[in-house]
């Protein structure tokens, strides 16, 4: 099976005044196509930094980051933005929906940067909403939806461009247990039935159980015993 994600000797440093803080240390990681990986670890372990590198939201200080066959650490800012639009769907703890727009209009937003016609954008958004079970809520605005429904809209928005990879940062962190399980079950279905590759940061062991594989981080590196 092909690797969708391959990191080699990746380090990430941030400068704070005169001090340099290394958040990731010589990290190696491979994630195969169709995998569902949960990244776990204490606060400050580097989970979100790693997720941001995989999703092309940040760049490594050292090392190689290859995702979907592209050395994304070498891309220019504009090229990286185009790459993200084609290959990555983002799902965050907070839904980041536009409050004045309907569910369907929110889902269509990523497609506004494509060459698709208005009719094609509408059709794709309807398909994505159907996948997450909200095709009957297409005209509702965010304040007319529950938290779980809003997160489903956010997932549909992440899916609408048919990305290679879904990256999720604490996607159930703002939800109650029952609703969280429903959202995690949806992610599991997207992985198992639709073949989506998913990388999810979570602090919740119950959420991690929905993944195929759990990787644990501490102090900027994978804990021994993980399978990279």
Parts with pLDDT < 50 across at least 5 consecutive residues? none
Percent range of helical residues: 25-40%
Give the neighbour order of strands across the main sheet: 6-7-8-3-9-10
Mean pLDDT over all positions: 90
Describe it for me?
- With 228 residues, this protein is of the alpha/beta class.
- The chain has one domain: Rossmann fold.
- The chain contains seven helices and ten strands.
- It has helices spanning 47-54, 77-87, 103-108, 118-131, 147-159, 177-194, 205-208; strands spanning 3-16, 19-32, 36-40, 62-67, 70-71, 88-92, 165-169, 197-201, 213-218, 221-222.
- The strands form two sheets. A six-stranded mixed β-sheet has the order 6-7-8-3-9-10, sandwiched between helices. A four-stranded antiparallel β-sheet has the order 2-1-4-5, with helices on one face.
- Helix 4 (118-131) crosses helix 5 (147-159).
- It starts with a strand and ends in a 6-residue tail after the last strand.
- The mean pLDDT is 90.
- It holds the Pfam family ABC_tran.
């Amino acid at each position: 099976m092909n690797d969708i994600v391959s990191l080699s000797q990746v380090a990430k440093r941030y400068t704070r005044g005169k001090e340099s803080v290394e958040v990731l240390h010589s990290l190696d990681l491979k994630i195969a196509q169709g995998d569902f990986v949960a990244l776990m670890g204490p606060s400050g372990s580097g989970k979100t930094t790693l997720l941001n590198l995989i999703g092309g939201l940040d760049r490594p200080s050292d090392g190689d980051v290859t995702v979907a066959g592209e050395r994304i650490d070498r891309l220019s800012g504009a090229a990286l933005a185009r790459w993200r639009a084609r290959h990555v769907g983002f799902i965050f703890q907070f839904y980041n929906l536009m409050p004045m727009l309907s569910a369907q209009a929110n889902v269509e937003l990523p497609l506004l940067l494509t060459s698709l016609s208005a009719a094609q954008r509408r059709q794709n958004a309807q398909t994505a909403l159907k996948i997450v079970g909200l095709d009957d809520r297409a005209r509702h605005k965010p304040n007319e939806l529950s938290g779980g429904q809003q997160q489903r809209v956010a997932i549909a928005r992440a899916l609408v461009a048919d990305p290679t990879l879904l990256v999720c940062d604490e996607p159930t962190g703002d939800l109650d247990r029952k609703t969280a399980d429903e959202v995690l079950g949806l992610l599991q279905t997207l992985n198992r039935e639709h073949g989506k590759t998913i990388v999810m940061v979570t602090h919740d062991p119950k959420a991690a159980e929905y993944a195929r594989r759990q990787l644990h981080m501490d102090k900027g590196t994978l804990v021994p015993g993980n399978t990279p």
